[in-house]
Amino acid sequence: MMRDNSLNFKFFNFTIVAAALLLTLSSCIDEYTADIPSDDSNLLVVEGTICSSQLNKFILTRSQAVNSTSQPRMVTGAKVSVHGSDGSEYVAQAADGYYACSMGELNPNVEYYLHIETDGEVYESEPQKPMRTEEIAEVSVVQSTPESNIEFFVTPEAPFDASKANYYSWTYEETWEVHPDYTTDIYFDTRLLAPVYDPYQFPARGWKNATSTEILVSASHNYEGQQIRGLKLYDVDRGNERVLFKYSTLVRQRALSKAEYEYELARRQASSEMGGLFTPLPSALPTNIRCLTSRKHVIGFVGCALNTAVKRVFVRAMDYSIDRKYPKDARTWLDNCTEQACLRMVQVEGMYLCEWRDERYQPNGKLRTAWAYDYQLDVRLKGAYADEPEFWEEEELKN
C-alpha cells in the first residue's frame, strides 16, 4: 500500500518571523525566492476556495506577531466577490467571521478569480479555470487487530489524465451517536406521590458532529497509473466516544493544481518549523493572490473547483472490537423509600427516578428506588442534539 507524499497538517495561525538573512528553501517542492518588503507586518491572510454550486466561505484575517497568543484579527468591512472572465460576478456577504458567496454552476471554460477591497487596497487572485475532481472509488475502514485503532483509507477513481501527476486534498465531517449514562421511562409525580410512566421525558440517544481540523494532501507521483490507492486519512481510538455505538464520516475530495499543492506543503512546513533558521517567512509562501494597488504581500492561495467528490461511510460498533468501559453504577439507591424521601429527592436534590422495584408484597420484600441527575439522563447536556440526521435514518432503513 503506497502512502508516499501524503501529509497531515493542521490549519494554523500565520505568524511573522523577523530575519536578517533570507535563505532559499530547498525541499520536495520547487524552489522559490521571496521578495520581502521592509514593512513585513499586518499582512492580509486569505483562506477559501471558489467552488461550483455551493456556498463558498472566504476568511480574511491579519497576520500576527511571533508567539502571539491572541486570536487572529478578522478583517471586517471588506468588499469580497468572485468574478469570471465571461463578465459574471458573485458578491459575497459578511457572515459570522467570514464572507459567504453563493455560487451557481461554474463554466469549465471560464476563468474565475477572487476580488477583495479592504483598507484602501485591492487584491485579486490569479484567474483560473475550475478543476474537475474524480469521484471517490472507496473509503475503507480497517481494524488490523482487536486492539488496534479504527483506520480510514481513501482511494480516488482512476484519474482523468494518467499521463501526469495528480494532486488532491481531503477533509471529513464526522457524526456519531451518543447514549445517556442511564435511561428511565418513569418519573415520580409529586402530586400523586407515585411513579408515573413517561418514556419520552429524555431522548434515548443523541448525535454529535465535528469537522476535521486537519487537511490531508497527496500527490500521485509514486502510484501505478498515477492513481492513489489506500491512502490513510485518519484513525479513531477504539475506546473513543465516537465509535462506541454508531459513527459516520463524510469524506470530501478536491483536485488541486500543482501550485496549490506546493502552497499547502510550504504552509505545513511553516506551521511545524516556525522560528527555525531555514523556515520561510509566511510572506515567502507561494501565493496566487496579488495586491493591485501597492507592493503589499498577501498570505494565502485561492483554488477553483468545478466539483467536490463526497462519500459517506458508517461504522457500527458491533462490527469491530470496541473498548467500551462499564463504570460502577453511579446512581443513588434508596431502600424502603418513603413518599417524603421521594419528595426530597425530587424537590431538594433535583434528581430523577430511574428504578422503582416494589417487592413489598413478598416475604421480607422491600421497595428499592434508583435516582440520577439530569446530566446522567439527558444527552443534550453533554453537547448532543436529539434530532436524528436524515442520512442516519436512511442508512438504518437499508439494514
Layout of secondary structure:
Elements: E1 7-10, E2 15-16, E3 44-47, E4 49-51, E5 55-62, E6 64-65, E7 73-74, E8 79-84, E9 89-91, E10 93-94, E11 99-102, E12 112-118, E13 121-125, E14 136-142, E15 150-156, E16 167-178, E17 186-189, E18 194-197, E19 206-211, E20 214-219, E21 231-236, E22 246-256, H1 258-273, E23 289-291, E24 298-300, E25 303-305, E26 309-316, E27 332-335, H2 339-347, E28 352-358, E29 367-372, H3 374-377, H4 390-398
Parallel strand pairs: 2-6, 3-24, 4-25
Antiparallel strand pairs: 1-20, 3-5, 5-7, 5-11, 8-9, 8-12, 10-11, 12-13, 13-23, 14-15, 15-21, 16-19, 16-20, 16-22, 17-18, 22-26, 27-29, 28-29
How is this structure best summarized?
The chain has 399 residues and is mainly β.
Written description of the protein model:
The longest helix is centred in the middle third of the chain and has 16 residues, at 258-273. β12 and β13 form a beta hairpin. With 399 residues, this protein is mainly beta. Residues 1-39 have low confidence and may be disordered. The strands form eight sheets. Strands 1, 16, 19, 20, 22 and 26 form a six-stranded antiparallel beta sheet that branches. The chain is elongated, with a radius of gyration of 28 Å. The chain has helices spanning 258-273, 339-347, 374-377, 390-398, and strands spanning 7-10, 15-16, 44-47, 49-51, 55-62, 64-65, 73-74, 79-84, 89-91, 93-94, 99-102, 112-118, 121-125, 136-142, 150-156, 167-178, 186-189, 194-197, 206-211, 214-219, 231-236, 246-256, 289-291, 298-300, 303-305, 309-316, 332-335, 352-358, 367-372.
